[in-house]
Specification:
The protein is mostly helical and about 110 residues long. About 60% of the residues lie in helices and about 0% in strands. The C terminus is likely disordered.
């Protein structure tokens, strides 16, 4: 690793950098290392997402128009899993004689 010293930095620029670093929970030095690495470091190639987009379009075409979205399917699965877990817990509580007490309403 090399060491770099920067002199004669404008006070407002330094203050802005210091505030930015503080908000990010980082040191000024760490922020500057990130900036230098991002701007002048080795370039990262972006992945080619075209095959993924083509597959997504193909899958979407094969589904009926009223098919639920992935988000709706995940929510339904989660709700079903929660319901099954609650039912299992109730059976265990009953089997162990720890049936939940219900409040009786006053007449």
């Amino acid at each position: 690793m090399k060491t770099l010293t920067i002199r004669q930095v404008d006070e407002e620029a330094h203050e802005g950098l210091r505030v930015h670093a503080a908000k990010a929970g980082k040191s000024v030095e760490e922020v500057m290392r990130e900036v230098i690495a991002e701007r002048f470091g080795p370039k990262k190639e972006k992945p080619d997402l075209r095959p993924l987009h083509a597959l997504r379009a193909k899958i979407k075409k094969s589904l009926p128009p009223d098919a639920p979205s992935a988000m709706e399917m995940v929510r339904q699965f989660r709700d079903d899993e929660i319901a099954a877990s609650d039912a299992k817990r109730a059976r265990i509580d009953t089997d162990l004689g720890r049936k939940k007490k219900t409040k009786k309403t006053a007449k």
